[in-house]
Amino acid sequence: MPLDETARGVYVIAPTPFHEDGRIDLASTDRMTDFFLQEAGADGMTILGVMGEAPKLDAAESLDITQRIIRRAGKAGIIVGVSAPGFAAMRALARGAMEAGAAGVMIAPPSTLRTDDQIVTYFKQAVEAIGADIPWVLQDYPLLFTVQMTPGVIRRIVQELPSCVMLKHEDWPGLEKISALRGFQADGSMRPISILCGNGGLFLDFETERGADGAMTGYAFPDMLAELVKLSRAGERDRAHDLFDAHLPLIRYEQQFGVGLAVRKYVLRRRGVIASDAQRKPGSTLGAKARAEVEYLLSRLARHDARAKLAPAG
Amino acid sequence: MPLDETARGVYVIAPTPFHEDGRIDLASTDRMTDFFLQEAGADGMTILGVMGEAPKLDAAESLDITQRIIRRAGKAGIIVGVSAPGFAAMRALARGAMEAGAAGVMIAPPSTLRTDDQIVTYFKQAVEAIGADIPWVLQDYPLLFTVQMTPGVIRRIVQELPSCVMLKHEDWPGLEKISALRGFQADGSMRPISILCGNGGLFLDFETERGADGAMTGYAFPDMLAELVKLSRAGERDRAHDLFDAHLPLIRYEQQFGVGLAVRKYVLRRRGVIASDAQRKPGSTLGAKARAEVEYLLSRLARHDARAKLAPAG
Amino acid sequence: MPLDETARGVYVIAPTPFHEDGRIDLASTDRMTDFFLQEAGADGMTILGVMGEAPKLDAAESLDITQRIIRRAGKAGIIVGVSAPGFAAMRALARGAMEAGAAGVMIAPPSTLRTDDQIVTYFKQAVEAIGADIPWVLQDYPLLFTVQMTPGVIRRIVQELPSCVMLKHEDWPGLEKISALRGFQADGSMRPISILCGNGGLFLDFETERGADGAMTGYAFPDMLAELVKLSRAGERDRAHDLFDAHLPLIRYEQQFGVGLAVRKYVLRRRGVIASDAQRKPGSTLGAKARAEVEYLLSRLARHDARAKLAPAG
Amino acid sequence: MPLDETARGVYVIAPTPFHEDGRIDLASTDRMTDFFLQEAGADGMTILGVMGEAPKLDAAESLDITQRIIRRAGKAGIIVGVSAPGFAAMRALARGAMEAGAAGVMIAPPSTLRTDDQIVTYFKQAVEAIGADIPWVLQDYPLLFTVQMTPGVIRRIVQELPSCVMLKHEDWPGLEKISALRGFQADGSMRPISILCGNGGLFLDFETERGADGAMTGYAFPDMLAELVKLSRAGERDRAHDLFDAHLPLIRYEQQFGVGLAVRKYVLRRRGVIASDAQRKPGSTLGAKARAEVEYLLSRLARHDARAKLAPAG
To answer: What is the pTM of this model?
Structure first.
């Protein structure tokens, strides 16, 4: 089912599981997919994202893993990152992903864009390249891409390009931006879109209250994210914040550039989701001090959330 | 007493209190100084920092408030930010600050620096400009300045410039950097320096454990920072983290670019430290939603820390 | 006489003459002022520019040299650069410059500006700070400042801020921008402004043909620039290009970041305008190979332009 | 024959010829290859460069055109740009290019690199990815990539990675860098490498005198570049500069970001090398004023160089 503006809940940014020797770990990929979508309560997954290890896969591997995850996912929506240095590659990735059964694609702006017009023009050209029939997610991540899109620019993109159905919101700070965009919808100047939030979930407690529809991020406890979104939607404010606050020390620790993926894979391995936390070269690893810090954070979290109660590290 | 490498504890990054009409609020400045240094247990203050409202002060105002705070501070050390677009202005600020009784000055790298040699050369020239007799703090804040200093480059600066006595550490991620620098000291390749951490305190719980001497940041509860540093130094790990975790939701909220100062002044006003949270133009303000979120965070914090139990907002 | 939108011709970006020991060379300053304005046919000068050595002057020196040049300049218009990290300093510089008799001031955007709205807002705040009565020049130099202003954004600034009377145009490429702005004037959507071009004059041959009013740059033969602008205005296209092409090898050589000022001062010294090509520390110098290259370029230029026929280098 | 450190002369950065409807123009591709290598006297070509239209080709098209040009080129060396967002894609491109018969590949640093160590590490990882048996060109283009490599860093790369055989030098300013690198060779601290210069040839007159082995750039008169390099090598200094100076007004005009490719294709079409100056979408075009300016520059050049004497534009 194609992605549309009614999407909500949690779309997990999925890492790529590898064996220690650098081969893709297919069994872990399957288990991870099942875990995210069956056990953790996620509504979908986003794969081949710009911050993950997708650039370390060659074209055949990318297509293989995309197809495998989509097949395994069943009815859940899989979004495929198609940002590329040129529109020809973007088109090939996008058409290939949709043929494989993806729900939609995600596009980030190249870091050279500066003016409002440059930004809008880029996304018009991208849609012309991939085709107006593919639903897509606009990724707004100024801290990484150094491209700043005002609410007004996002509105121009949404209004001029009907196939844009979702915003991956990870501006920082970003709470007022959510309010501004929802205000545009309320005053009728922008059609509705889905807003899912990134940034490792660091502000998700308030983002849902501001009108976000959920999360698209990769925190190692996506089950908590899904629960938080439901509590918030049910108006259980205090319970939502209690849950969030218990996880915040670890969320914050995982939200470190470069180190973050190593932490995420480490915790996913400790939770039994993937077999190894190896990264394909060139990758980062956690030193002994960092591993001990993560274990300490897990042990503290376990006092509040049984999911963090893990067998001793091997 | 001049700043040296034994400095530890908390040096509060001080905001500038204004009246609603934009004039400097001298009474609040005095009260804030007393609060930070007498009540909150801070060891010093850092003023005229690059992220505060110092650039909105004219030269006479800057000198006035520097002198006033230094007089009021008594024996506590006052560090004065002297980053400037040119060395002539930097020299004038630094000599003026020291004559007024400052303990030392702080210098940030200009955002144009890229290569290792450019960075080292800049600080050599800066020391030549201000004079080798003034103790100074090296500010390492890549997220803001876009200048990346490896541990090796910091070691070169420390070894070649004896008047550099402190690092204001706010790289992100930064825990391994602290370990690397303390490792240099341990293996004898770098002389000891003081390391105080910024970034709003977002990682202070682990930074102290990695070997940092304390904090130099502006969180609205510097009394908590001081307590945390003491607990950590006393080996009270769990108590330190319990205290930190209770504050983390607000620390995280205050650590938003641009918005942060508005939150900080709002909370300091609510705590009775300053009379108004006005910023001199052009400034940011908290909208109604943001104010309500801060109040909610304070009410939740108050369950764990009585200092956050405040009279209802007026 | 205050600067207005009818300004045309050449405003020389003036270097600061120093003695070998770093003191300001007042006699050379006077001689340089006379040379630019009496002999070379320039219509004005721009001082304390962001790329010169202004940041190496302390506040008293800046004011002194500003007053001295303005007195010496007589009726010619002196524009003073007032870009500063904060509005308080900008206001102080601007008011001081105008009291000293400046014709106007020049403001560059800080490198942090990204979106169209941020840019327009910044200049509104700047005008609010310095006062709407001071005529000012908008400096558009994306290569240096990394701020990109579209023609539409420049139009917004011009229309919303009547005290903006001139554009220092140094976008690169920039010919179409001049045409776009003059098109706005032609269709009545923008009021007239003066456009003077920078970039070392590298495109001045065509910029005047596109509608620029002249040059504001620092090439060591401002007399050539003045002559070129006159030829172009008189419709002597081929003669203008012949003159320009003869100088282009040297213009191009001088238009090298960092090295440029050393070349400029070297040639001005060789022409007898200033006594020394010393830069105040930290400065750049020409190595032996570079000096020989400049001499070779001068000797080749001398075949076409007698002004380049100089006594052998000492 | 694989590329090595003895390479000299001119390697033309080749554009991709398109039909008006966006299809690759194979006949023009052949004619262009013949022209560059047979008539213009170039020693090789560089294809799929980062500034050309390579990102607009899909993978199959890239491989097709690479194979076609290599077959057509005969013994001349073809260098293939393999810069990519990830090492898997870089490896695939590099192995594919070498299998097709390329002489070597070219790698540019990603714009996120800052510190000396990051830069050296990146190229080590790249060589590990593509294999140490593939000769490669280090592209040093700070203005575009915002990565600054000091001569010392280049030396580290050259010394640690024997398969690096050439530097594409386009730092700006860059003359002293050539001298520094040749100095390293002279003092024995760096093994010899080939240095070919880019930047549209804007400084080629002096770059050859500083020790560069030639040019790797895309100016529309590569025959002039080849002649210049020969004159310079033969010690015909004045004749080399006479030739260069005649072309400089056009070289300078072509050296405009974004516009440059449109100028280049326009002139190549006017010279009969390619059938159309169309760019695949999204592309830039020359407006009427710009075309007239180029025609005027060609007519002026024709007084000195008969190759610029062209039939009237159609």
So the answer is: 0.95
